[in-house]
Amino acid sequence: MHLKQIRVLMLNDNDNLERTLFRLEQGFELQFRLGPSLQGRRVIVHTNYPLEGQRFNRDNFRVLAWNYPSGREDDSDKFCSLELKMAGSYQYYFGYAGIERLGGGYIVVDPVLRVGPDNHVLPLDCITIQTYLSKCLGPLDDWPDRLKVAKESGYNMIHFTPLQTLGESRSCYSLADQLTFNPEFSKEGQNWSWEDVGALVEKLRTEWNMLCITDVVYNHTAANSVWIKEHPECGYNLVNSPHLRPAWVLDRALWHLTLKVAEGRYKDKGLPAEITNESHLNAVRSVFWEDVVPQIKLWEFFQVKVELAVEQFKMQLQKGFKTGGKKELKIIQDPQYRRYGNTVDMDSALETFVPHSSSPHHIEECCAWLKQRLNELNDEQKRVVTQHQEQAINCVVGNVVYERLADHGPKLGPVSRKNPLVTRYFTYPYEDMTLEEEMQVLDQPDKMQHFLAHNGWVMGDDPLRNFAEPGSNVYLRRELVCWGDSVKLRFGNGPEDCPYLWEHMKKYTEITAKHFHGVRLDNCHSTPLHVAEFMLGVARGVCPNLYVVAELFTGSEELDNIFVTRLGITSLIREAMSAHDSHEEGRLVYRYGGEPVGAFVQPSLRPLVPSIAHAMFLDVTHDNECPIQLRSVLDSLPSSAIVSMACCATGSTRGYDELVPHQISVVKEERLYPKWNPAAASSSTGEIGPQTGIIAGKRALNKLHQELAAQGFVQVYVDQVDADIVAITRHCPSTHQSVVTVSRTAFWNPKTHQYESNVPPMFIPGQIEEIILEARTVERNAGNYKKDEKYINGMLEYTVEIKEHIPSMLVKHSGVTSKGRSEFVQEIQFQKLTPGSVISFRVSLDPKAQKLVGVLRYYLSQFSPKYKRGSVPDENSPPALQKPLAQLMSKLTLADMNILLFRCETEEQEDGGGSYSIPGWESLKYAGLQGLMSVLANIRSSNDLGHPLCANLREGDWLIDFVFKRLINREGPLSQVGQWLGAMFDYLKHIPRYLIPCYFDAILVSTYTTALDSTFKLMSGFVQNGSTFVRHLALGSVQMCGVGRFPALPPISEKLSDVPFRISAITGKKEQCCVSMAAGLPHFSAGIFRCWGRDTFIALRGLLLITGRHAEARNIILAFAGTLRHGLIPNLLGEGRCARYNCRDAVWWWLQCIQDYTNHVPEGQQILRCPVTRMYPTDDCEPCGPGEVEQPLHDVIQEALQRHLEGISFRERNAGPKIDMHMRDEGFTVVAKVDPATGFVMGGNRFNCGTWMDKMGESDRARNKGMPATPR
């Protein structure tokens, strides 16, 4: 049976969670409930998740209706919900009348991917993806043979780089036309179209069980795109972005510098065309400052024409100088960025520089002040521009170092037109002129509009900022790592700002979504969010279950979440190559998916908690360096194995498995991928087969990865065996099967690095069922690597030696050892685990433990169907388990429930016990189940298996024994519940210790929820039909009301027929065992300090009358009635014999409860006739025995009222420090009377406190000892 998954999101005031990721699956229900800060307010929840059957519109919000489960409006239980059936990103916000938005956030619903002729679901964690550079696939009719490599290598998803017509640079991501299928994929006489691509993609989905995704590139287009020349407004040009004019001037100056350096004109200044050393770099700096900077005078774009401004100012003064400006000179930047185009705010100038008079002399003097200040401001602007230029030359030199000097750079060689000093930042579609002539073009808009800014990326920049917009100096400071083949696109704020571009990209998106199952957002962190939001909305309109992946370089999980939540990104690309050693590689596996082994079973209805983005964990991405160059060829297989054991989507790029020893450049690579041929010769470069590279190993690993995800192996444990060996366990929580993969990494070449020859043994908990695979990379005689001219070829001299499902050759079983009755461990000694080796075991619990876990799950399945998988019926069911727990619980009273669920330390100590103390942590608040459940609730939600409570459970059976033994020693039904728990725990104790916290929690949750169900059935209809809040409040009745070892109440009349009795454990005689109410936990819970008159009768209505515990309420009323003395009910009851009558209000609370009882309880007036056993029939008598003096309750009430009207005055018995060490002597005199004129009760003196405000001063230093806080 499938349990519906419900997630609850609590709404609280000012919960702005836009940067928090909430991931949900289709089929889930999301409930919004009110948190404490919003209770009592008329909250309105809005969402743009559409009604069923309607299309999604990001800006169309609707109000969600509230549901009331209890049938009445109750803020604690009401909720509004969404049935999630559509993938994507959806927004919610909430507020109330007058304040529309108090908080909000996003939810991301994952797509459902389907493959095969039967459209079966491909879970996200099953994905194994391989990237192809599309331009290396050749003609479309050759694609199946080349793509078959992915199928035969075990991948189930293909990522194509863009299939559109490429730009001049031939970069896979510089597209000349986003709408046309690249004609290069058609042979002569052919004309393949998008429909043909779509047909191939569908064939792969249905026949090969493979899905296909491709990139979408929204941020730029190829510089040679025809449409950008026809629509230059789609880019950032000098007309629509005049703030880029100074940067363009600098760019042109650097281009002319390139030409001069290439021609050798700076050789005599130490700057040759071939830049090879530090002195050449210093020469670049010198030439820049001496020749370039003075020539272009960039500061003039930010300065004021001083003479003109002063002349305008003088004219204003001569006209009269009354203004409303502020006294602070303001310079206004010229929006067109012309030289000396800045102006002065004349109002501020006139307010700042005021002549002494209107005489010509004073006006001239004032103009001189302004001139001086403007020259100072111009100098400041020049200093700012100089700082920009300093950064610019630093970036230029850094670029030169990387491109020409660095070992890891491209080593471009001499400066030339083809390989300029630095990449140009702007297009220049005209013949070169002199720099002076080019500066004249700045006055020709028809040409300026074609100087378009290139795209790129900025190291460490804010990804939410568009670096090409006004306010950014990235282009001027040369901080852009520029892609000189691509123009940055200018979308503006919406379609109205650039209609052609939005429409063009919309068509591009529709084509992509029509033919592919998903998209990779290229350059996602630099794509404007609102653009990507819009386009993905278009794409999901075409393909509702669109799989969206992206790679982000924000450096912050919080910033990542902004993109993930707003765009609905399904998976974020993560790379194993980012790990600097095997420790880090293992940590990434643990970080990117799965629960810890032995994780707690989560309820199907639970809080919605933040999550990290789903990962697509790749051994290497297609645009990063080749691992063989950075590590060693032998590491390819073990690192792939580590990646494949991650509980998330995994993948690689074509060429990795074939051991291609260099990066396959997305720009320069033009060779073709080899085709698949299972019989390919080992020396072949145009064809590959199972023996090529590590393909055979990767196929087995991919198959294993998909099997683990499909079969629910969702728990992960990473063990760093030593510096190079990583063991990763995937565990199935229902069958408790595990797969352990041991990888010996080879980050360094074994030929040059000394690895440890002794491999430490491993201890595998459980029984090894089989060796799934053994594989290692080995050398073979196939010649040394030689780069092929036509095909992308790998290192033929290496292959994988692999065996599957066989008796192990690499390991030696050293037999089974027992670490106690529940720990069976198999020791493994590795024989040939050389660097580059991988071995995978399938492990199950030993047969006895497996059976016991199955039996446990069988008994737990009476509480939830989620335990049915892996359950095994018990052949010899113990007597204690033969009845359902609910049947045993139904026999318990609410007093029994107090013992089962609650009882604090002091209550339990009366029976010689106490609450359980967890070593190294603290004692539980209750000895009953609630003490554990409160702690486990926090542990369970976060799977905090390192908590001291979990450690205590793994280390021994002490807590397990405590839970059931305190119940078995009780009489009757409680003992039976204890026996049921004991029988369940007998199974629990014999399963592996790492599983005990999980199953201990499962047993306790089942017992606790069953107990609560039985508890509420014993209460009133108001509680049974009430909200969750009401029921939680009603538990206070069970918490505070119980029966201790010693009777806390004096005996009530034996004439009452339904008074509970028991045999005293102390005297062996029959005694009453009425429920009493603790005044407070834990300090007023046991002994003579348990019951207090005032506290009892303030709480009695809520704890006993409302909950339907009428008999217990009656007994408490009558017991206190029996202790009436001086017309008062005791403050401290002290079992009646140690009572103190020092409060004036308890009797009135008692009377109020009697009135409530008569009104609330059916035939409640009968209580007035109930016999009361008087302990003190007169004020000064000794306590009477039960039944000696009895009278009806109405007579006792009459006496209390009569005594007040007559006036009460007495001195407490045993007055002095024996009963109150702080009270002054005068305070022991108690006076109470009724004002005959008003009926008000009054009394007391300044030294005693007779009402609930009874705090007595205790401090000599504060001089309040013996002085009440208030004498009321």
UniProtKB/TrEMBL annotation:
GO molecular function: 4-alpha-glucanotransferase activity; amylo-alpha-1,6-glucosidase activity
Entry annotated with the keyword Hydrolase: yes
GO annotation terms (biological process): glycogen biosynthetic process; glycogen catabolic process
Domain called Glycogen debranching enzyme C-terminal: residue spans: 1066-1272
Domain Glycogen debranching enzyme glucanotransferase positions: 121-547
Compartments where located: Cytoplasm
EC id: 2.4.1.25, 3.2.1.33
InterPro entries: 6-hairpin_glycosidase_sf, AGL/Gdb1, AGL_central, AGL_euk_N, AGL_glucanoTrfase, GDE_C, GH, Glycogen_debranch_met
Segments forming domain Eukaryotic glycogen debranching enzyme N-terminal: 30-115
Catalytic activity: Transfers a segment of a (1->4)-alpha-D-glucan to a new position in an acceptor, which may be glucose or a (1->4)-alpha-D-glucan; Hydrolysis of (1->6)-alpha-D-glucosidic branch linkages in glycogen phosphorylase limit dextrin
Coiled coil, from the record: none
One Pfam family of this chain: hDGE_amylase
UniProt entry keywords in alphabetical sequence: Cytoplasm, Glycogen biosynthesis, Glycosidase, Glycosyltransferase, Hydrolase, Multifunctional enzyme, Transferase
Domain Glycogen debranching enzyme central residues, every copy: 693-967
GO CC annotations on file: cytoplasm
Family from the record: Belongs to the glycogen debranching enzyme family.
Functional description taken from the UniProt entry: Multifunctional enzyme acting as 1,4-alpha-D-glucan:1,4-alpha-D-glucan 4-alpha-D-glycosyltransferase and amylo-1,6-glucosidase in glycogen degradation.
Protein name per its UniProtKB record: Glycogen debranching enzyme
